[in-house]
Amino acid sequence: MTNSIVIKKKLKNFNKEIIVSGDKSLSIRWVLFASLASGNSKAQNLLISEDVKAAIKTVRKLGIKVISNNKFCKIFGKGINGFNYKRNLTLNAENSGTLGRLILGFLINTTKPIKLIGDKSLSTRDFKRISDPLSKFGGVFKLKNKKNLPLTIYESKNLRPISYLENRGSAQCKSAVIFAGMRTSGTTLIKAKKSRNHTELMCKYLKLPVTVENKKNYDLIKVKKVKEIKPFDYKIPSDISSSAFFIILTALSKNSKLLIKDVNINPTRIGIISILKKMGVNIIFQNQKTYKGEKLADIKIEGGKKLKAINCPTNLNSGAIDEFLVIFLVAAKAKGISYFKDLAELNQKESPRLKWGAKILNMMGVKNIVTNSSIKIYGNPNLEIRKKIIIKNYLKDHRVFMTSVIASLSFGGEWHIYDKDSIKTSFPNFLKIINELKN
Ligand code: S3P
Predict the structure, then answer these.
(1) Is 119 a catalytic residue?
(2) Domain count of the fold of the chain
(3) Residue 216 shares a structural domain with residue 116
(4) Handedness of CA 150, 156, 161, 162 (dihedral sign)
(5) What is the span of the domain harbouring residue 199?
(6) How far is CA 237 from CA 19, 109, 234, 301, 416, in A?
């Protein structure tokens, strides 16, 4: 059986309503919080993808019972100190940076050594950014090449709270430190550059001793020791990062319209919407509501509008960090030269994504100038591709695969895209929804 797809035709215009799957960041966080709750928690619409399954396997290995099927998931938490496991346990975060990094915060008070491993892509990623602050709490780590997985976290003594400056805009670093602070007597202080705030919102909903003061460019977070997490049910809203591929497919398609239902529009996640609006895309939020602190809406997009280049303000970077690859396709069709800067973090993702963005654009014949942290894209409103393009050896980065599919359906050409299985990490029914748009 082949694990690649071939696309030779552009998509015809469409007018549809779709539902995309549950948010990955919220799904993983719910699994982690519920695993430490004192009682049973249930989730509906949990994303059933490889990353979330890895989170479920991880908490099971830590001694927590989980029942899950396609409709719901139930976690039988045994309280804040309910993890129960043997010495030298191995946990596998597979492809998930979020799982691998966040779980280390909860494991800071381990009484036995635990080894953390991951797949080929995760094993190249930076874990020093987590072990450094967690070592200040008193955690003891050994990492491969002082930076990577496999790592071992050893039993720690005399944990103490810390003051931490998070200046990358990384929600994973911020969240790992919040979790570790929850395990420590005293008050941990975090000054964090703005990034997605799902952890803080869940803490607020659960009434945990975590406070947040929002300043203009950063947040001040105070964390105290958590004595109990009450069990909690959660209906996971749809993922804006998965919706992004369909928002952009519509934006690039003449006479198309799309409605995406019940999407999480947390203000720290909608950088893509601000960027696309500045580029001339017609997007509106309908039926806005709030659910357990998270904002939701139906997103309506009208395609085929004239697209303008953007000099992308860097304050939108962290809110769009997972969407840049596919945003570059809009820049490829916009009138003028777009400029995206201060994006070194993009090369720290499942693949070096800034490099992959430039590679895909080069294959498409779109002029661009890329550095380690920026890219200039020379747009062409009449862009049409007429050649054969092969996308492979991209460390199975799900977002490289999905971006390539959107490019092929929007600009034509003959695309051979390898490693279709990569979408299983975040969005297993991506191709099914593409097919719905064809009919
Ligand atoms: C995530 C945070 C982001 C993002 C990732 C999910 C999270 O990573 O890229 O896909 O759920 O906390 P960083 O925190 O490394 O920026």
Answers:
(1) no
(2) 2
(3) yes
(4) negative
(5) 24-223
(6) 10, 32, 9, 19, 33
pLDDT tens digits, residue range 325-338?
Answer: 999 999 999 999 99
pLDDT digits (tens, 9 = 90+) for 242-285: 999 999 999 999 999 999 999 999 999 999 999 999 999 999 99
| Residue with CA at minimum distance from ligand 1 atom 5 | 98
Joined tokens for residue 155: 């039993």
Which residue from 24, 25, 122 has its CB within 8 A of the most atoms of ligand 1, so it is best to mutate? Answer: 25
HSE-up of 355 (CA within 13 Å, CB side)? 11
| Closest approach atom of ligand 1 to CA 241 | 10
Residues 6+ apart with CB under 8 A from 416: 4, 5, 6, 388, 389, 390, 391, 392
pLDDT over 60 (residue 358)? yes
Cβ of 242 closer than 6 Å to ligand 1, yes or no, is: no
User: Is the pLDDT confidence value at 434 over 70?
Assistant: yes
Out of 174, 198, 223, a domain closes at 223
197-221 mean pLDDT = 97
Ligand 1 atom with least separation from CA of 175: 12
What end-to-end distance do the CA atoms of the chain give, in Å? 26
Cβ-based burial of 195 (10 A; exposed 0-12, middle 13-18, buried ≥19): buried
- Cβ-Cβ contacts under 8 Å for 137 (sequence gap 6 or more): 108, 156, 159, 160, 161, 162, 180, 181, 184, 188
Q: Tell me: do 141 and 76 sit in the same domain.
A: yes
CA distance 439 to 436: 6
Question: Ligand 1 pocket, 270 CB below 6 A?
Answer: no
The reply to whether 250 and 206 lie within a common domain is no
Strands 40-44 and 15-18: unpaired
Amino acid at 111: T
For residue 313, what is the domain's CATH number?
3.65.10.10
306-329 pLDDT, tens per residue? Answer: 999 999 999 999 999 999 999 999
Ranges of H-type helices in 12-87: 24-35, 50-61
Helix (H, G, I), strand (E, B) or coil at 313: coil
d(CA 407, CA 327): 11
What's the pLDDT at 1?
53
The model's pTM: 0.97
Cα of 323 vs centre of ligand 1, distance in Å, is: 11
Same domain, 204 and 267: no
Q: Which of 223, 256, 281 is the last residue of a domain?
A: 223
For helices 171-181 and 128-136, angle between their N-to-C axes, nearest 10 degrees: 30
Residue ID of nearest Cα to ligand 1 atom 15:
170
